[in-house]
Amino acid sequence: MFGWFRRKEQSKEVARDRLKLVLMQDRMALAPHTMEQMKDAVIVAISRFVEIDEKGLEFEWKGNERNKALVANIPVRSVRRSAKAID
Amino acid sequence: MSEAIVITSGKGGVGKTTACANLGVALASMGHKVVLVDADIGLRNLDVVMGLENRIVYDLVDVVEGFCRLRQALIKDKRLDGLFLLPAAQTKDKTSVTPDQMKQLVDQLKEEYDYILVDCPAGIEQGFKNAIAGADRALIVTTPEVSAVRDADRIIGLLESSGFDDPGLIVNRLKPKMVAKGDMMDIPDIIDILAIRLMGVVPDDEFIVVSTNRGEPAALSANRSKAGEAFRNIARRLLGEEVPFLDLTEHETFWEKLLKLIKTG
């Protein structure tokens, strides 16, 4: 009987939440090629300062549908003495 | 200065052709020279929505293949002076035209018309690529449903990667009563999800069915329907005018609220 006063989740909220999830998957499905390009760009940028182990490089998406985070694990071999950062 | 606008959606049946016809009618009634291009080769419908199906002699593919001159294929609207239709071919398919040919065609139309509205077919294949080829801007039509919004998102992504940086969104067939009850996604929900500029909201309107039955777009008699008025407003926004959005809110009555409380308990 008290159930009468309990608010049931509105169907538009269900729709919105389902959409957000499915769109995150859709948008990421487009990514493999973009991901590779991004990886390459990051390697170039970081290599100016430090020597990295490209084989050990790991990129992955973390988080939920609201907050996406790109987590990169970049093993560093050594720091360049005279960074090419200035050029 | 002329502009080519493609009207697209991804999903079929959300109202692209209706939007195209009504925006064309609205722009022409404001004194602009407008041509509607039906890019849905093999499944043409803009002709029937416009009520011009009996006047077709040549079509878009005939023009592209050189069977006739562009001027011969254009059908003049019987009601508005500056309004023309270039019908799609019905017996060919999407591969009978290339994006380059479409771009040429649109450029040629730009010499004579202020606005070229291209009605894009559903889908993301060749027909879509043809339709966007010559366009300067894009309008995306969606309905407040999960499937339509999802496809709109995909289309926005494809448009962006083709260089369309600021597409506008038309939300069609909004049912204010359902929104008030929380049973339909609202405009802010959709805009938040798609992160795109809102060009207009068209309420669900039985008059659209009647006007399609008759081949007389609702925007011809905008005073008789909310949907017609909404399309005329979108046309004015396309021209750069600031037009307030129609107030479509409908509140639930006390009895509806009570009934819902009992039902959902």
H/E series of chain B: EHEHHHEEHEHEHEHHEHHH
Q: Measure the end-to-end span of chain B.
A: 60 Å
In CATH, the homologous superfamily of chain B goes by the name P-loop containing nucleotide triphosphate hydrolases
Q: Structural class given helices, strands, pairing of chain A?
A: alpha+beta
Question: Which features characterize this protein?
Answer:
heterodimer, A: 87 residues, alpha+beta, two-stranded antiparallel sheet, 2 helices, 41% helix, elongated, B: 265 residues, alpha/beta, Rossmann fold, 8-stranded mixed β-sheet, 8 strands, 16% strand, globular
A few lines on this structure:
With 87 residues, chain A is α+β, with helices and mostly antiparallel strands. Chain A has helices at residues 11-29, 31-47; strands at residues 50-52, 58-63, 68-73, 76-79.
Explain what you see.
The complex is a heterodimer of chains A (about 90) and B (about 260). Chain A is an alpha+beta fold. Chain A has one domain. In chain A, about 40% of the residues lie in helices and about 20% in strands. Chain A has a two-stranded antiparallel sheet. In chain A, strands 2-3 form a two-stranded antiparallel sheet. Chain A is elongated, with a radius of gyration of 22 Å. The relative contact order of chain A is 0.13. Chain B has 12 helices and 8 strands. In chain B, strand 3 and strand 4 form a beta hairpin. By secondary structure, chain B is α/β, with parallel strands linked by helices. The termini of chain B are far apart. The mean pLDDT of chain B is about 95. Chain B has a single domain, classed as 3-Layer(aba) Sandwich (Rossmann fold), CATH 3.40.50. The longest helix of chain B is centred in the middle third of the chain and has 16 residues. Chains A and B meet through helix 1 of A and helix 7 and helix 12 of B.
Sequence-ordered SSE layout with sheet pairings:
The complex is a heterodimer of chains A (87) and B (265).
Chain A: H1 11-29, H2 31-47, E1 50-52, E2 58-63, E3 68-73, E4 76-79
Antiparallel strand pairs in A: 1-4, 2-3
Chain B: E1 3-8, H1 16-29, E2 34-38, H2 46-50, H3 60-64, H4 70-73, E3 75-76, E4 83-86, H5 99-110, E5 115-119, H6 126-133, E6 137-142, H7 146-161, E7 168-174, H8 176-181, H9 187-194, E8 197-203, H10 206-214, H11 226-238, H12 254-264
Helix pairs in contact in B: 1-11, 5-6
